[in-house]
Amino acid sequence: MTLTKESFYGALPPPSEVAKANMDSTRDKEEALLQSLTRTGAVVPRKRVVGRLVMHSMAMFGREFCYAVEAAFVTPVLLSVGLPKNLYSLVWLISPVLGFVLQPVVGSASDHCTCSWGRRRPYILGLGVIMLLGMALYLNGDVMISAFIGESDKQRTWAIVITMLGVVLFDFAADFIDGPIKAYLFDVCSHQDKEKGLHYHALFTGLGGALGYLTGAMDWSQTVLGYSLASEFQVIFFFAALVFLICLTVHLRSIPEVPLRYENEETKFLLEVTESYKYSSIEEEIKNGYLKPTCTEIKAAAKPGKCAVTSGTEDQRRMTLKSLLKTLLSMPSHYRYLCVSHLFGWMAFLSNMLFFTDFMGQVVYQGSPYAPHNSTLYLTYKTGVEMGCWGLCINAISSSVYSYLQKILLPYIGLKGLYFIGYLLFGLGTGLIGLFPNVYSTLTLCSLFGVMSSTLYTVPFHLIAEYHREEESLKLQDGEQGGEHGRGKGIDCAALTCMIQLAQIILGVGLGLLVSVAGSAVTVISASMVALIGCCFVAFCVRYVE
Questions:
Q1: Which tens digit of pLDDT belongs to each residue from 362-400?
Q2: Any stretches that span the bilayer, and where are they (predicted)?
Q3: Under CATH, which number does the domain 322-478+488-545 receive?
């Protein structure tokens, strides 16, 4: 058969049909792309390499390092500057009250942040700076005041004020920063990578805490830095600030965010198409690192090149405090039950951790922080505090080990089993420590603290991710756009993190009074009772996604 010129051209489809086919193919690809867009305008995240997840987890390493320094030294520092007992509870109340009120507001604000750098990272950077400022004040407050004020009475008063201010600022920022970090992870990772990321967070949280407690347990007075700087607290601050700055920098450069940009309240979360029969503008915006929404509504008979897609609704607009509270109160019951169980967990954990080094110094070693600094009682107390740091170091190491074991145990016992075991082992361990305050048994049982720590940092947030995944699936089954619901991940993580502040408020009101009356021994007994109550709540009230 001879192929003539006429038969060759006759075998080809008309140019109009080719253009139409190309247009349809491009449109199909674009519709698939649009279906991968979430409510916030971000593309469904691709798989992340392990190195990026490790870099992202470095923020938890640095944060927990600084937390370990605070847990080990804040009580001795406050007592050494002469803080009256009746003001002790006030220190633990101011920061959590501020956090409990402002945490959901920050979470909602980060959900709608339009900074070109991303939605979460600006908040993480700002809170990191506040953490450094607070740590500088409470570890160096007395030295700073003595350099400017010569009168001893005024020195004592201002040293107490500056130290209290430093503790409040540090607690405020360190508690706040966890929510944006978790929301940042959820934004930039797929569901499988979220699970990996949470485990890496727990792993590096334990490692950071171990290094922080180890730094506090060492005697720096006989080292070069100890001779160079004015006090041991300044040496600790030098290491803590250096570690945190490095970790924060690595974290902020770990995974790029897709910024959310919109021109006004009526046009956010929308996408504009600019060329006739083409949707390449969206792809170009994604390549440039952001989406620029400009149109306002879907038009059924839109003109070519002006077609718009909208997912913006009234409840997606920037929230005021009133609407924010309404959103929190209207959360599904399983979210509220999860928050209550998280509250029980943190009440038990903080009740033990905040006073543990003091418990070791006063109850286990029978020392006294109020004795003269050159007396045997005070030196015995200081030895107990250092041994308490070693106990907390054991806790941090066991937290890292258990975070790895969680991945092995999860397929067999599920999230419910992990949650239940964490609370149960912690409750039994703290109860035994309170009943038998022996040095060796206490240090051995400190390993159970790490099980609770790893549980609190992973399982509740894992459940939040499961709840969101389930909601997304139900939306897609109903033919709605995935991710189109009233709450963002930021506000859900913030609501969960708020339980830490609420736990501190409750402990600040009640536990401080109990400690002043009955001594530090009451803290571990209280921790045991609350953990066992939370164990029952986790078993019977929290909902688990099958």
A1: 888 888 877 887 888 888 888 888 888 888 888 888 888
A2: 65-83, 89-110, 122-139, 159-177, 198-215, 235-252, 343-365, 385-405, 417-436, 442-465, 493-515, 521-545
A3: 1.20.1250.20
